[in-house]
Amino acid sequence: MDDLIEDGKFVELTYQVTDKKTGHVLTGVEFPLGYVHGHNEILAPSVHHELEGRCAGEIIEVPIDGNQIFGARDESLVFTDRLENVPEEYRQIGTSILMENDQGQTRSFLVTRMDAETLTVDGNNPLCGREVVFRLEILTVRDATDEEIQAGGAIPAQAAIDSSRMRPV
Predict the structure, then answer these.
(1) Residue 120, strand partner residues
(2) Is the torsion defined by CA of 16, 22, 23, 25 positive or negative?
(3) Which of 44, 107, 109, 141 is spaced 20 to 30 Å from 127 by Cα?
(4) For residue 86, what are the contacts with CB-CB under 8 A and spacing of at least 6?
(5) How far is CA 120 from CA 67, 73, 107, 127, 131, in A?
(6) Using alpha carbons only, how large is the chain's radius of gyration in Å?
(7) Are 60 and 52 in contact (CB under 8 A)?
(8) Domain locations in the chain?
(9) Which helix (H) or strand (E) holds 13?
(10) Angle at Cα 140 formed by Cα 134 and Cα 143, nearest 5°?
């Protein structure tokens, strides 16, 4: 019998997130993403819930309302400024800019619009106000090793190097 996804299982999957209204792909992963189920949530809780009891080889679709996860869109987090006030390295749509307010709190903003005179940044999560569909392909389900449980996911290959054979240069 195939292993089913439950707490303590190592799971590898790929996913794609599409806008339910337009069908456009918003994001995704091409290379397998590995995690230990029940030990770290790498995706939305509702996605993890839908993965429970599934097995390798399954493809599932999970609809999600972005407002429930990220809250309603906040237009006060959208700023437009004259292009000459923006450093050259930020003048590209899709660029992420980390900003800090007067209280020292940071937030990531995304350059969303630019024309010959102005640039607009948006501090809302790109999934706010959207209904999206997570399409997940489950590639692997097996018992997690103790090391994977401790790390919460896949162990990078370089972590397996025998450090006793290494010397300072």
Answers:
(1) 80, 113
(2) negative
(3) 141
(4) 119
(5) 22, 16, 15, 18, 23
(6) 21
(7) no
(8) 9-69+128-155, 74-122
(9) strand 9-19
(10) 120
- Residue 29's pLDDT is 87
Read off the pTM: 0.68
**What is the C-alpha separation between 109 and 124, in angstroms, rounded?**
7
- Report the C-alpha gap between 34 and 42 in whole angstroms: 9
User: 30 pLDDT exceeds 70?
Assistant: yes
> 9-69+128-155 adopts what CATH topology?
Chitinase A; domain 3 (3.10.50)
CATH of segment(s) 74-122: 2.40.10.330
Do 59 and 121 meet the contact criterion of CB atoms below 8 Å apart? Answer: no
Looking at per-residue pLDDT, the higher value among 138 and 166 belongs to 138
pLDDT score for 124: 92
Output the CA–CA distances (angstroms, integers) from residue 9 to 16, 24, 43, in the order listed.
Answer: 22, 32, 16
Cα(47)–Cα(66) distance, rounded to whole angstroms?
12
